[in-house]
Amino acid sequence: MSTSRGRVEDVYESQNDQRLDELHAKIRTLRGVTTDIHSDVESQNLMLDETGDRFSSFGATLTATSRRAGQAFGIGTGSLKPWRIAMLIVALFLAFWISSKVLAWWWGSPSV
User: Fold this and answer.
1) What is the pTM of this model?
2) pLDDT for 43-68, tens place per residue?
3) Is 110 helix (H, G, I), strand (E, B) or coil?
4) What is the DSSP letter of 76?
5) What is the per-residue DSSP string for 18-64?
């Protein structure tokens, strides 16, 4: 009886060793997957940080540009530059219109 009992224990021991080896292989695979996920997350975090920095830089540049444009055109409280520009455009339009009418009258009537 002791011989058969020893064989059963040896079978159980070999099954335990086999299952322990399988578990160890699964743990190695899981560790590799975890390492890959970690490195991917780190690279994505770096990319997001760089994108955020670029947008912040773009926002600062856009703010500075709009401030300079406002100063150049005199946009703000109590400024007259936009009205001056609008009146200049209207005056130029009227001057071209009147000159075209005068030139059409001058060249358009033949002498008979």
Assistant:
1) 0.48
2) 999 999 999 999 999 999 999 998 88
3) coil
4) S
5) HHHHHHHHHHHHHHHHHHHHHHHHHHHHHHHHHHHHHHHHHHHHHHH
